[in-house]
Automatic annotation (TrEMBL):
Compartments reported by the entry: Membrane
Endpoints of the signal sequence: none
One CC-aspect GO term: membrane
Membrane topology, from the record: Single-pass type I membrane protein
TM segment ranges: 273-292
Protein name (database record): Uncharacterized protein
Main location as per UniProt: membrane
Organism: Manihot esculenta
InterPro entries given in the database record: Leu-rich_rpt, LRR_dom_sf, RLP23-like
Protein family (similarity comment): Belongs to the RLP family.
Key words, A-Z: Glycoprotein, Leucine-rich repeat, Membrane, Receptor, Repeat, Signal, Transmembrane, Transmembrane helix
Length: 333
C-alpha cells in the first residue's frame, strides 16, 4: 500500500489551461487513500466524468463536487466514504435535463484527432464497458460505501439520470414518492440498505426501467405489481420480510384494502355473467318468433295454430288426471 500526494502549482501557463478544459478524470481501481479534495470541483469546471471507484477514499463526499453543473457520470463506488447524500445533488444540472435525445455529445476529440474513450460502469447488476455509447450515459454510483441518512428527494430532480446505484450502504428512510420523475432511469439499485415503508405505486409508470434491485431492505406492504413493475422477478424484492404480493410467494393479508377492492370487483363481475346469459336467452326466445311473424304474415297463422293445439293437448292431459272432472274432459279434446 502506498499513499499518493497530489500537489498543483497553479501558475497561469498552458498546463493549467489543459486542466481547465479536462472533461474526463478516471482514477479508478488504484490504491488512493485519504479524503477526496474539496478543490476538485473548482479545479476542473468542465469536468463531465469523474471515476474514483475501487480506491480507499474516506470522509464525506466533498460539497465542491456539486458545483460541477456539467457532471454526467459520478462514480465513487467501492470506497470508505461516510456521511449522507447532500441535498445539493440537484445542482448537477448535467443530470437534471432530459437533453440527450436532442443533443449529440461526444468524447475522444483532442486537437481535431479522435481517440476512443471508454469507461467501465456498474449498470444493470453487472460491469459494463461503455465506448461509443458513453455520450448517452448519465450515472451516479456511490455503492459499496458507508453512507447513512435519508435519500433526499432532490435526487429525483435528476430527470436525465440513466443509472442510479446506491447499494450496499446504510441509507434509511422511505423511497421518495417522486422517484417516478426519473423518466429516463434504466437501472436502479437500492439493495442492501435500510429503506423501510412501501414501494411507491407511481413506479409502475417508469417505462424505461429495465433493472431494479430493492433486495435486503426493510420495505413493507403490497408490491405495486403492474405496468413496468410487473416485468421484475422475485429476486428484485427478496430479503424484505414485510413485502407481499406478486411476484413473491407471500400473499397479502385480507385486510389489504387494494386487494379487497380488486377481489370484490372481480367477484361482482363474474357473478353477473350467469344472470346476464339467462336474460339474453329469455329475450331471444320471445323476440325471435315475433320477428319471424313480422317478416311473413302467413307464418303468424301457423305459429298461433301450433300454440292452440299445444295448449289444448296439455289441458286435456291435465283434465284426465283429475278425477273430479270425469267425462267432461272429452269436451276439451
Amino acid at each position: 500500500m502506498f499513499r499518493v500526494h497530489i500537489r498543483l502549482d497553479l501558475r497561469l501557463d498552458s498546463d493549467i489551461l489543459l486542466l481547465l478544459w479536462m472533461i474526463i478524470l478516471d482514477l479508478g481501481y488504484n490504491r488512493l487513500i485519504g479524503k477526496i479534495p474539496q478543490w476538485l470541483g473548482d479545479a476542473f469546471p468542465c469536468l463531465k466524468i469523474l471515476s474514483l471507484r475501487s480506491n480507499a477514499f474516506s470522509g464525506e463526499v466533498p460539497s465542491g463536487l456539486f458545483n460541477l453543473s456539467s457532471f454526467e457520470v459520478l462514480d465513487l463506488a467501492e470506497n470508505q466514504l461516510r456521511g449522507s447524500i447532500s441535498t445539493r445533488v440537484s445542482n448537477l444540472k448535467g443530470l437534471t435535463e432530459e437533453r440527450r435525445i436532442r443533443q449529440d455529445l461526444s468524447y475522444g476529440w483532442v486537437a481535431g484527432v479522435y481517440y476512443e474513450e471508454s469507461l467501465v460502469v456498474n449498470s444493470k447488476g453487472q460491469s459494463l464497458k461503455y465506448t461509443r455509447t458513453l455520450s448517452f450515459l448519465t450515472c451516479i454510483d456511490i455503492s459499496g460505501n458507508h453512507l447513512h441518512g435519508d435519500l433526499p428527494h432532490e435526487v429525483t430532480e435528476l430527470s436525465g439520470l440513466v443509472v442510479l446505484n446506491l447499494s450496499r450502504n446504510h441509507i434509511s428512510g422511505q423511497i421518495p414518492e417522486t422517484i417516478s420523475e426519473l423518466h429516463q432511469l434504466a437501472s436502479l439499485d437500492l439493495s442492501s440498505n435500510m429503506f423501510f415503508g412501501p414501494i411507491p405505486p407511481s413506479m409502475i409508470s417508469m417505462s424505461f426501467l429495465a433493472y431494479l434491485n430493492f433486495s435486503c431492505n426493510n420495505l413493507s406492504g403490497k408490491i405495486p405489481y403492474a405496468g413496468q413493475m410487473a416485468t421484475f422477478e422475485a429476486n428484485s424484492f427478496a430479503g424484505n420480510p414485510g413485502l407481499c404480493g406478486a411476484p413473491l410467494v407471500v400473499r397479502c393479508s385480507g385486510s389489504d384494502t387494494i386487494n379487497k377492492e380488486m377481489g370484490n370487483a372481480y367477484v361482482y363481475t363474474n357473478d353477473r355473467w350467469p344472470y346476464l346469459a339467462i336474460g339474453l336467452g329469455y329475450a331471444a326466445g320471445l323476440l325471435i318468433p315475433y320477428l319471424l311473424m313480422a317478416a311473413k304474415r302467413s307464418w303468424s297463422f301457423v305459429y298461433f295454430a301450433f300454440v292452440d293445439k299445444t295448449v289444448d293437448a296439455l289441458l286435456y292431459l291435465a283434465c284426465k288426471r283429475t278425477p273430479c272432472f270425469g267425462n267432461h274432459c272429452d269436451n276439451l279434446h
